[in-house]
Automatic annotation (TrEMBL):
It comes from the Eukaryota. InterPro entries: NAD(P)-bd_dom_sf, Sc_DH/Rdtase_CS, SDR_fam. It comes from Aspergillus caelatus. PANTHER family: 3-KETOACYL-ACYL CARRIER PROTEIN REDUCTASE-RELATED, SHORT-CHAIN DEHYDROGENASES/REDUCTASES FAMILY MEMBER. Keywords: NADP, Oxidoreductase. One of its GO terms (biological process) is fatty acid biosynthetic process. This is 3-oxoacyl-reductase. Belongs to the short-chain dehydrogenases/reductases (SDR) family. Pfam families: adh_short. GO terms for molecular function: oxidoreductase activity, acting on the CH-OH group of donors, NAD or NADP as acceptor; quinone binding. The keyword NADP applies.
Length: 254
């Protein structure tokens, strides 16, 4: 049974690895001997330097395979193309999916949110995770082992500082996760999400000064760290018995 949770030698696809949380997940999984397919949309330099860092850090212990893919996850065609690249470069589909790439323009009021903004947010945050899950699930089923983690948000539970478009996309992720977890359990595939709030050192929230009033209201008195989100992702992918859970990581915020 120990092999259930031994992830070394597995392949993880992490979308949005050019951002704060995705990069932290990549570092933690690489340290556990997991091969990586990392995606970015616009920030190639941070993804390339992350890959270089990880390759040189882990070159002594094992030979880590890392691929980098440019993909706008609002495009089904680009996601399909990414899977073709992964097939070529790794010879298989991912065993672990961390669907983390996300977008959220801070527009609090419904009357200010255009239909285009709503549709785009849903496409990036929700529809992409559906397409990505479809792209990995046949492989996971056939080997009777898989881990899927969606990056939701406190917004999916009604909190946070964003508008209803972002809340809908993230709440939708939790609904989809709960359904998938019951459908896929018989194939030994766990499906969970992490719902962070106010994580600093990210493109979304570089530091507390970006959101002074909100930061002042965090019960723990500080922003969360990308590495703390990655801790939860690592726990989920190494704890296959946990499935169907949305884990709030919000410094005491509700
Ligand atoms: N920071 C927080 O407090 C917080 C709270 C709740 C949830 N989250 C969620 O955590 C996830 C990671 O965000 P982060 O905090 O690490 O912020 P971040 O540093 O801004 O990272 C966002 C990532 O998503 C990628 N991305 C954005 N739009 C994309 C698109 N259309 N196609 C493909 N990739 C796209 C970005 O790629 P490029 O940079 O290459 O363009 C980047 O890698 C997101 O899903 C976000 O909603 C964050």
């Amino acid at each position: 049974m120990e092999q259930q949770n031994d992830i070394s030698g597995r392949l993880a696809l992490i979308t949005g690895a050019s951002g704060g949380i995705g990069a932290a997940c990549a570092r933690q999984l690489a340290a556990k001997g997991v091969h990586l397919a990392l995606t970015y949309s616009t920030n190639v330099s941070s993804t390339s330097s992350l890959a270089e860092e990880l390759k040189s850090k882990h070159s002594d212990s094992y030979s880590l395979r890392i691929s980098i893919h440019k993909v706008d996850v609002s495009s089904a065609d680009e996601i399909q193309h990414m899977f073709e690249e992964i097939d070529q470069q790794h010879g298989k589909r991912p065993d672990i999916l961390v669907s983390n790439a996300g977008y959220g323009k801070r527009i609090p009021q419904v009357w200010d949110i255009s239909l285009e903004e709503f549709d785009y947010t849903i496409n990036v945050n929700l529809r992409a995770s559906f397409i990505l899950a479809k792209g990995v699930v046949e492989h996971m089923k056939s080997q009777r082992w898989g881990r899927i983690v969606f990056m939701s948000s406190i917004a999916g539970q009604g909190g946070g500082i964003n508008g209803c478009h972002y809340a809908a996309s993230k709440g939708g992720l939790t609904g989809m996760m709960k359904n998938l977890s019951t459908r896929l359990a018989e194939y030994n595939i766990s499906v969970n999400d992490v719902a962070p709030a106010m994580i600093g050192e990210t493109g979304m929230i570089p530091s507390a000064s970006a959101i002074p009033e909100v930061a002042a209201g965090i019960p723990l008195g500080r922003l969360g760290l990308p590495d703390e989100v990655a801790n939860v992702v690592t726990m989920l992918v190494t704890t296959g018995y946990m499935t169907g859970q949305s884990l709030l990581l919000g410094g005491g915020l509700k």
